[in-house]
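Bit of a strange request maybe. I'm writing a small parser for structure token strings and I need a real example to test against, not something I typed by hand. Could someone generate the tokens for this chain?
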Amino acid sequence: MKNLLLSITLIFSFLIVSFSSFAQSLQIENVVSNFYDPIQDAIAIKGNIRNTSSDTLRILVKSNAIDVVDPAITFFCWAQCYSSAVIVSPSALIAPPNGLITEFHGYYRDNGVTSQARVNYTFFVEGNENDSLMIEAAFDPATVGIRDVNLESSTLNAFPNPANDKLTIAYKNVNFQSGASIELFNMLGVKISTFDIHQRDGSLTIPAYNLKAGVYFYIIREAGKTSKANRITIKH
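Reply from user aminoacidic:
Good idea to test on real output. This should exercise your parser:
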């Protein structure tokens, strides 16, 4: 019954995903696939890994690019984002009994290639690869329409960079009448803040003293479309 419900969820979520499981301890939930992530400028898949056992487990992930044409690349985030050269996550994430790991994202950056790509992601218990769960993602640039998503007219600029106690983001040529906002994300693509825009040109100042030191991204969103992500560094 669980597999049937998951299959129905995948279909109605417009996913292009298949999965297989040898896991006694792992289960995947809330999978979303084949969507554009402006932070990484790539097509993405994400999902939550649940520890269904009564033990605390250390979980790793391994990627396997089955059908990827150069110069396209694949990469993933597992608490932190790794380059395309990393196949197995260097560090495990800890899941307590019935705990949920939410830090997985897999990415396909087409770099101008229009063909589909298939990538396997295997989640397994550290020290016991037989206790594993695999999903296969099919990324299709044609269905996502990345080039139709990015805004071209609006511009953003943040300063100072790096920032310490406050951060100013200036914007121009915003179609605010269609509903617009500036969104701030952390390195893993988790949205930190949203700021509504009510004029074509202007700026806003964001307190940065309460943000952890590190790299952040900001975009502008207009009527469901987004700009390319810009990077800002916070240092204290």
